[in-house]
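Inverse folding, one chain.
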C-alpha cells in the first residue's frame, strides 16, 4: 500500500467518524430533540458539514488521488476506492464551503418548519424554506456542472450514472403498462379493510415488530427501533444502525410494514463490509439499490402467504381480536390495490404512481417551469389526473413527505428504481433452490445470505446499474416487476 493510498484510507476513516456523528445528531433531531434546541442543532450540523468538507477538499487530497490513479487498476477494492474517491473529490471541491454550511443549516431548520406546516396543513409556512432549499440546491448543481439539465446532476447524487433521458424511457415504458394494471387490480380485490381495524396497543405492536425484524436477520445488538414522524433508517457505523417507525393504534399493519421496510435498509447497512468502513467499498452503492432491499423485505417477503402462515398465529397472541382472521384473509388485506392519497400507505401496484408524480414535478421545478408558490395547485391537479381523486388539504398532498425539507431532490425516482431492482433481484435469488425452499417455509437466512454476497458486501465496487446486472443477470428493466405485480394482483 502506497503512502498516498494509506493517507486516503486514514482520511476516509476520520471523515466517516465525523459524518457518523452528524448522522447521530440528525437521528436525535427526529426522535428526541426538544423543539427549542433546533436552532442550536442547525449550527452544530452546519459546523460539522463544513469541517468534513474542508478536510476532504484539501489540495493534498487531490494529489493523493492522482498518485493512486497511476497505481491501481482493474476491479479490485483499491481500484474501486480510487475511482469513487475521484468522483466524490471532484463533487466536493466544486462547492464553496460557505454553501455547504448554509445548506446544512437551512436543511435543519426546514425540517422543523415542514413538520409544523404538515401538522397545520399550511404550505405557506414551509414555502420560504422550500424556496431557499431549491435555490441552494440549484446553486450546488450549477457548481457541479449541470449543463443543460440540472436534474441529471441531482439524480447522480443518489443514483450514480442515472440520466433523465434514460429514466424517461424506462419510466415511460413502465407507466404505459402500469396504468391499465392499476385499474384492473383496483377493481379486483374487494376485501373489507374495516374488519381488521381495532385496538392494537403500541407496546404490543413494538414487541411483534421486534420479533419479526429479528427473525429476518436484524441484529438488535447492533441496532434499535424508535418512533419518528416519518419512518427512516440511519446507519451510524459498524454496530449502530437505527430504525424508526410510527404507530396507528387502530391498525397494527402500518407500523409492521414500516418496520419491515426500514429493516430492509438496516440489513443492508449491517451487511456492509466493516473492514472497509469509511472507504467507498464499505458504503452502500446507491439509493435505488438501497431501496430495493427495503421493498424486497416489505413486499416480496412481508406480503407473501408464507410470511403470514408463520406470523398470523403470533399476531393473534398479541392481538386476540384477530382470532377470526384466516391466513387467506390477511394476505388479501395486505395485497389490496386501492387509490390512496398517502404514498407511504400505498400498495405495491399504485405506489409508483406517487413516485412518477413527484418525479415529473421535480423535473419541472429545476427546469424553471414550476414556481414554489404553484406547487400545491400543480400537485393537486396532477394527482387528480392520475388517481381520479381530489386532494383535500396540503397534509395529504404536497406536504406529506419529508424529503424536500431535507433538500434532497432527485431522490424520489430511486423509489421506483428500488421496486424494479427488488423484483429483478428477488426473481434471480429465487432461482437458487435453497433460497426458494427457505422462502416457502418462511426461513429467510438463505435469501439474506444471497443478498449479503451479491449486494450488501459489494459496497461501491460497481456502479449501481452494473451491480444489479451482475447480481440478477440482466440490465435494469420494468419486466420483472410487472410480472410480479400481475402474478400477485391479477392471477389469484
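Residues assigned per position:
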Amino acid at each position: 500500500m502506497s503512502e498516498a493510498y494509506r493517507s486516503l484510507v486514514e482520511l476516509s476513516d476520520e471523515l466517516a467518524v465525523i459524518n457518523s456523528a452528524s448522522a447521530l445528531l440528525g437521528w436525535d433531531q427526529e426522535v428526541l430533540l426538544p423543539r427549542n434546541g433546533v436552532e442550536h442543532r442547525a449550527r452544530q450540523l452546519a459546523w460539522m458539514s463544513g469541517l468534513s468538507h474542508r478536510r476532504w477538499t484539501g489540495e493534498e487530497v487531490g494529489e493523493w488521488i492522482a498518485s493512486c490513479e497511476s497505481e491501481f487498476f482493474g476491479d479490485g477494492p483499491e481500484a474501486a476506492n480510487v475511482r469513487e474517491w475521484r468522483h466524490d473529490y471532484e463533487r466536493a471541491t466544486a462547492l464553496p464551503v460557505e454553501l455547504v454550511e448554509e445548506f446544512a443549516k437551512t436543511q435543519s431548520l426546514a425540517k422543523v418548519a415542514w413538520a409544523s406546516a404538515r401538522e397545520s396543513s399550511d404550505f405557506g409556512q414551509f414555502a420560504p424554506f422550500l424556496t431557499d432549499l431549491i435555490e441552494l440546491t440549484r446553486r450546488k448543481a450549477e457548481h457541479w456542472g449541470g449543463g443543460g439539465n440540472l436534474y441529471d446532476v441531482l439524480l447522480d447524487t443518489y443514483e450514480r450514472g442515472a440520466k433523465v433521458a434514460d429514466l424517461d424511457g424506462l419510466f415511460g415504458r413502465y407507466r404505459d403498462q402500469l396504468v391499465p394494471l392499476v385499474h384492473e387490480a383496483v377493481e379486483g380485490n374487494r376485501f373489507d379493510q374495516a374488519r381488521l381495524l381495532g385496538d392494537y396497543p403500541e407496546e404490543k405492536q413494538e414487541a411483534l415488530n421486534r420479533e419479526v425484524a429479528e427473525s429476518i436477520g436484524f441484529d438488535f445488538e447492533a441496532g434499535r427501533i424508535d418512533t419518528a414522524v416519518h419512518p427512516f433508517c440511519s446507519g451510524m457505523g459498524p454496530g449502530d444502525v437505527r430504525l424508526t417507525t410510527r404507530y396507528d393504534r387502530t391498525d397494527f399493519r402500518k407500523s409492521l410494514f414500516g418496520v419491515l421496510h426500514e429493516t430492509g435498509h438496516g440489513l443492508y447497512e449491517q451487511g456492509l463490509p466493516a473492514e472497509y468502513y469509511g472507504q467507498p467499498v464499505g458504503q452502500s452503492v446507491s439509493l435505488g439499490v438501497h431501496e430495493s432491499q427495503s421493498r424486497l423485505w416489505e413486499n416480496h417477503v412481508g406480503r407473501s402467504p408464507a410470511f403470514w402462515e408463520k406470523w398470523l398465529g403470533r399476531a393473534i397472541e398479541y392481538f386476540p381480536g384477530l382470532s377470526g382472521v384466516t391466513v387467506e384473509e390477511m394476505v388479501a388485506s395486505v395485497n389490496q390495490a386501492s387509490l390512496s392519497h398517502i404514498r407511504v400507505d400505498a400498495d405495491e401496484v399504485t405506489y409508483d404512481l406517487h413516485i412518477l408524480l413527484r418525479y415529473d414535478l421535480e423535473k419541472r421545478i429545476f427546469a424553471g417551469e414550476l414556481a414554489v408558490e404553484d406547487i400545491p395547485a400543480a400537485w393537486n391537479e396532477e394527482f387528480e389526473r392520475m388517481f381520479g381523486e381530489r386532494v383535500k388539504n396540503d397534509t395529504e398532498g404536497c406536504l406529506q413527505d419529508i424529503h424536500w425539507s431535507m433538500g434532497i431532490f432527485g431522490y424520489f425516482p430511486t423509489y421506483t428504481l428500488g421496486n424494479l431492482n427488488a423484483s429483478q433481484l428477488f426473481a434471480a435469488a429465487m432461482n437458487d433452490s435453497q433460497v426458494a425452499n427457505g422462502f416457502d417455509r418462511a426461513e429467510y437466512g438463505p435469501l439474506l445470505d444471497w443478498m449479503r454476497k451479491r449486494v450488501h458486501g459489494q459496497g461501491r465496487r460497481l456502479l449501481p446499474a452494473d451491480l444489479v446486472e451482475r447480481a440478477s443477470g440482466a440490465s435494469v428493466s420494468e419486466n420483472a416487476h410487472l410480472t410480479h405485480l400481475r402474478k400477485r394482483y391479477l392471477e389469484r
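The two ends are 58 Å apart (CA to CA). The chain has a mean pLDDT of 95.
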